[in-house]
Backbone:
């Protein structure tokens, strides 16, 4: 197998920002993650026990997952060759180690360096002697340990004396400082990675979402009029460091009219105190195809309710006041039940919500989905413009995206 990537943050700052944001977001969730390279794209995955035997399609307990898609045209060079289908190469890596290397590259660029960052998969036989660093994989085999070799240049600036005799007194003060000497340093790193067998890779599957009771809304763009306000709404919870769980509620008006904005509310009810945070600004509701069927069922129930009211009023004419009062109470209860069915709520960990705040500020389009009493999903995407240099002018590039699946922290 062969893997070689080249990225240049100086020439393509927006694409590099997407890659950096993805790496740092994955690192904020767990110590290790998975890189899955295919012919078309790179997928970064953060799942619990990513190379273990448990199937990851079901979210339960403390099993939040991040699935990130990085298109191949984000890289200056993208070469992946493997015997597997779609040239798949899958590996597990330490998040902090890779993020540290990218921070060094950031520092180099801040000094004015425009060097390429080259990433290669390197065989390391000396790391695999005596069992190596890999854990046992399928059929008792040991996962081979390789290295991601990363190289880039950095320009170091320094000052040296100019050797001029200052006693003459005819040398300008600016020249007495000396001249600048630039030195180019080649940085080289090796990040250990554990290659995953095909059976292990197959078990890592993207979670499924229950669409039976799902509310989705498009959040205000971070750079838009309401972006700063919504960012403060998300960040408000971070003030309370002792909070472990929050209750996220999304509600929409009866009938799911697109003219009515859905509402979001965060409730904290622990440590003997109660707090409610509400977002009163605009939200763009995303209506599913199944909703008209629910409206049909509601309209079919209405005539039955009306006929029952007429029968009751005719059967007890001597107690009109009592009958009307009972009918009003019944209607109020039924209406409350219908309204409750339009409220989606889920308990989630406070630290998961903090990750949401970080993602919201990094992407142009963010969609929030709440599956009642099951999970919450944050879908972030970034428009990368159009292809103008490869003969397909006007065709949009594949979007980079991060999908954050958040399992409920406890039942309602």
Residues:
């Amino acid at each position: 197998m062969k893997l070689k990537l080249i990225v240049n943050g100086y020439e393509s700052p927006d694409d590099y920002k997407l890659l950096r944001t993805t790496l740092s977001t994955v690192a904020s969730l767990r110590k290790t993650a998975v890189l899955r390279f295919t012919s078309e794209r790179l997928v970064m995955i953060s799942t619990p026990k990513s190379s273990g035997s448990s199937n990851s399609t079901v979210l339960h307990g403390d099993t939040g997952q991040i699935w990130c898609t990085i298109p191949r045209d984000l890289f200056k060079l993208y070469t992946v060759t493997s015997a597997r289908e779609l040239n798949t190469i899958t590996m597990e890596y330490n998040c902090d180690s890779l993020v540290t290397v990218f921070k060094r590259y950031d520092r180099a660029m801040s000094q004015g360096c425009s060097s390429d960052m080259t990433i290669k998969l390197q065989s390391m036989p000396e790391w695999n002697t005596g069992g190596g660093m890999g854990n046992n994989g399928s059929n008792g085999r040991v996962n081979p340990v390789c290295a991601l070799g990363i190289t880039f240049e950095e320009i170091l600036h320094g000052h040296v004396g100019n050797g001029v005799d200052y006693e003459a007194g005819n040398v300008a003060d600016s020249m007495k400082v000396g001249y600048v000497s630039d030195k180019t340093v080649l940085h080289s790193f090796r990040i250990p990675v554990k290659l995953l067998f095909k059976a292990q890779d197959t078990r890592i599957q993207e979670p499924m979402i229950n669409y039976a009771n799902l509310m989705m809304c498009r959040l205000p763009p971070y750079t838009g009029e309401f972006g700063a306000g919504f960012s403060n709404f998300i960040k408000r919870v971070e003030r309370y460091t002792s909070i472990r769980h929050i209750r996220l509620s999304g509600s929409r008006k009866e009938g799911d009219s697109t003219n009515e904005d859905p509402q979001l509310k965060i409730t904290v009810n622990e440590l003997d105190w109660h707090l409610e945070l509400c977002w009163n600004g605009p939200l763009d509701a995303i209506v599913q195809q199944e909703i008209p069927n629910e409206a049909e069922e509601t309209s079919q129930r209405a005539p039955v309710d009306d006929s029952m009211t007429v029968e009751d009023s005719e059967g007890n004419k001597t107690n009109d006041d009592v009958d009307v009062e009972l009918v009003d109470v019944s209607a109020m209860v039924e209406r409350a039940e219908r309204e409750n069915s339009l409220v989606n709520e889920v308990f989630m960990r406070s630290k998961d919500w903090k990750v949401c705040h970080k993602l919201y500020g990094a992407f142009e389009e963010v969609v929030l989905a709440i599956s009642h009493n099951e999970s919450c999903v944050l879908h972030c995407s970034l428009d990368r413009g159009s292809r103008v240099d490869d003969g397909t002018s006007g065709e949009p590039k594949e979007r980079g995206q991060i999908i954050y699946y958040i399992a409920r922290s406890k039942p309602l």
User: Anything to note?
Assistant: Helices lie at 13-27, 95-110, 173-176, 198-203, 227-235, 291-315, 320-340, 350-360.
